[in-house]
Structure formats: structure tokens, C-alpha cells
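Thread: "does anyone have the structure for this chain?"

Original post by V.I.:
We have the sequence but no experimental structure in hand. Need at least a predicted one for the grant figures.
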Amino acid sequence: MAISIIRTVILYFLLMTAMRVMGKRQLGELQPSELVVTLLLSDLAAVPMQENTLPLFNGVLPILVLVALEIMLSCLMLKFAPFSRLISGSPIPVIKDGKVDEQAMRRLRLTVDDLIESLRQQNIFDLRQVQYAIAETNGKISVYCYPQYQPATIGDVTPKKPPDNGMPVVIISDGRRSDWGLALCDLNDQWLTRQLKRRGCQQEDVFLLTATKSGDVFLLTKKEVHG
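Reply from O.Q.:
Generated one for you, C-alpha cells below.
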């Protein structure tokens, strides 16, 4: 009995350490690779807890290998955008300019009931209020409502109403271009080249660039971020 308790305590702290090493996102919004690792870790930890005849090292080694593999994959996904899209996929708009994209929903095997349920969970009960809905890589659906249905802010009580610039979309993230972001804003490579040339910087120098369909652009360079 004492051996089982000791083995359980050791594995418990080992898994807690592994989750901390893999990052806070592991605790919430799981990417596909992270979900696989989490499920495998739970199964691998259960065996040495129950089988006292199994050497503890034989149960710990697969856990360490999985953690190392997940860290390696995360580093590769950070460095190489195509590899990141291969592992995690890309966000997919299911509602664009208030119109439901039936083809995208079929691609995601997302039913109308699933979509409506996701909207209800965000306190949206009328589909007509939604301007954009995007299926994220972790399976959640992000929603951007028309201005008249968005929560009130201090700017809303001022005499002059701000214009409807649309939803800001990431075009460049840490030097990597987002093709789906360009498509969502109906922009192209020529537009992006002009914006970078106008601001005197290269794509690899950009930390974040967002844009809207109305042409509202926000650019933050890596030099500004790092001071």
C-alpha cells in the first residue's frame, strides 16, 4: 500500500511539472497536438500507479518522451508557419459579412444546431446580429457582432459615433503572413507590399499587422516591441 501511495505521489508531481513545462495553454484551449499529449499522459500515468510490479522508471520514461516531443513540436510550430498549419490547421470563417458559409460548415462537419449553440453560449440568440464567426484551431467559435449589437463603451456615449471599420484581422504575426487573414479582408499581396513599402519595413520586421475591410491598418514592428 505504501509503495502505491509513493508511486502515485511521484507521478502526480511529475505530471504537474510536465503541464507547467508545456505552458498555460495546456490547461485551457487545447490545440490538436496538445489534446493528444494530454490524453496519452493520463493513460501512461495510470499504468504505473496501478501496477506495482512495473518498474517506476518504465512508467516515467514514456511521459518524459511525450513532454519532450510536445516541446519540440511547439518550437517547430513557432519557427515554421507551414508546419504549424499542418499540425493545428488554420482558422476558418463560417460567417462572413453576415452570410453563413455552408461550404465551410460542411468542411468542418459543423451543423446549424452546433453553430447556434455556440452563439447562445456567447449570449447571442439572433444569427442576424453576427457579422463574423470564425472557427478557431482549438475548436471554439469566435464571434464579432455588428456595431449596433456590440456592448456599449465610453465611446458610444460621445456625441460623435465612431465609424464602422469592421473587424480587425491579423495579416502578419511575428513576421509570418496570414493568407486566410488577407482573404477574409478581401486584400491581396499587392496591397500588403504597398503597406510595408509605405511604412519602410520588411515583412520579417513586423511583429503585428492588422487590417479591416475599410482599410484601417495597425502595424507594430519588432523594434518597437523590443524597445
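V.I.: this helps a lot. Residues 37 and 66 are 7 Å apart (CA to CA).
O.Q.: and Strands lie at 92-96, 99-100, 130-135, 141-145, 169-173, 176-177, 206-211, 217-221.
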